[in-house]
Amino acid sequence: MPTQTHRWKRLAVHALLCVAAIASARAGDQPQWGQRFSRNMASEEKNLPDNFDPKTGINIKWSVALGTSTHSTPVVAGGKVLIGTNNDDPRDPRNQGDRGVLMCFDEKNGKFCWQLAVPKITTSNFWDWPKAGICSTATVEGDRVYIVSNRGEVMCLDLHGMVNGNSGPFRDEARHIVPAGQPPLEPGAADADILWLFDMIKECGIRQHDSAHCSILLHDRFLYANTSNGVDDTHKVIASPDAPSLIVLDKATGHLVARDDEHIGPNIFHCTWSSPALGEVNGRPLIFFAGGNGIIYAFEVAKDAMDGVEKLKKVWWFDCDPAGPKENIHDYLRNREQSPVNIYGMPVFHNGRVYVAVGGDMWWGKRQAWLKCIDATKTGDITRSGALWSYPLRQHTSSTPAVHDGLVFIADCGKTIHCVDAATGAACWTHETKNDIWASPLVADGKLFIGTRRGEFVILAATREKKLLATIDMGSPMSASPVAANGVLFVATMNRLFAIQKAPAASR
To answer: Domains plus CATH for the chain?
Structure first.
């Protein structure tokens, strides 16, 4: 058990981190995917453009090349923009081949600052899908960047990279950035500085599937991360049924503090890709988590455990598809009419309610899907008592909802954007696009922004009456969600990141 001296040391480290976070925080930053804690895809940013043109440069502040496959959503903090991609366009000529990459750019002009390069898992393609890159979205607090790599590692990085030296207890960056068996590459100023690292595969027995996908939730002294535990290569077996789906780490040290104890593993239909959210209910904060078994859980927040790994205390649970199969679930593989459900997007907390999009698996399950609204004030099994309304979507979905001004906006893989009344679940309008939508909608400045897998970027009025403002050809598919920060709209295609801002009137 840690001594009193260790306890004081940990508290001192936490205090220093809090001071650093306060010192560098800016009101207009977007340091996490979605609103802080709640995950709501709505922003208070104003004066955003309702049109732009990547070809002519109209309202384009800057743009930079990424890799060729970008599924990570950008975040903006401390004058930096961070986004995950792959290594098909290597920034470091010494580091060739398939890698997961986190790139850091200067927010003002798009100048490349540094990158984290992570070798692939070579066990099989279904551990770490070829060319997928780092799919997770970073979370930033002060000068600390928290990210889950393509290898299932929770990392704490220095926001400034190696330019200010190699800090922290982790000192083996030279070996970490190259595959096993290759000679180390001495890191330079354009490389990431890893402060600490927690390997979920090694420490928790995780069997990640396809790729690690997590947007870390930061609250108080703790990091909450979904683990991407899922099926094996056959898609019919859960190789790690006892592994956690949700873990909690100490943000200062990376030590494991807590985990769920819900035995979700055996009932995961595909994987655990939904990241956690937080909201205050009846005066206490709760963690909202969508398991790979189609159940939404509310947990009490973690405590400062000093003598081992705690089990998160469950407050309520909600089965998003109580009529779906509950036994021998992998017998329903490739069944497009009947299967368990999966949850890709994040649950969103707003005014005592949880909004979540849930449905059949994109690759392996039924096409049926819904937008659900749950009363977060209940306790126990609230599958029936907490169900406020359910709105049918056109097909399976991977989006996170945006709740704003009494409306909920969501997109699906049926090529459709939906506007729904937040109180009743009644349909307001739909808008059809030309291809599937994997991204989440962003609502900001009275507008809705979203991209499609065909490369259309759609801007609609975020109002009860439908009004299409613009459809822009980005020239490349989009998986990432748009982000607004400090008066700028950031849009990532598969191979390029754009900073979009209204040009001065004289320029226009």
So the answer is: 4-500 (2.130.10.10)
